[in-house]
Design a protein that fits this description.
Largest sheet: none
Shape: rod-shaped
Oligomer: single chain
Length: 71
């Protein structure tokens, strides 16, 4: 659990960066004009990243609470 607690902040940062990148791509109007099929792919990837981000935050809070209770 301690190792996982150490790793999670970095993983969350990676996911947030990926999420921001996908949002930036989806905000570009050229994407919809030039690469229509890629829009669905990016939206599916965004859903996946957001699900993992939500579960990572929940797990981090859980581990933090356990560590706080042990202190």
């Amino acid at each position: 659990e301690n190792k996982e607690l150490e790793i999670l902040p970095g993983r969350i940062e990676e996911l947030e960066t990926e999420q921001a990148d996908i949002h930036a791509q989806l905000a570009d109007p050229r994407l919809y004009q030039e690469a229509g099929p890629k829009v669905a792919e990016l939206k599916a990837k965004l859903d996946s990243v957001e699900e993992e981000l939500t579960s990572s935050y929940a797990r981090w809070e859980e581990l933090d609470a356990v560590q706080g209770a042990d202190a």
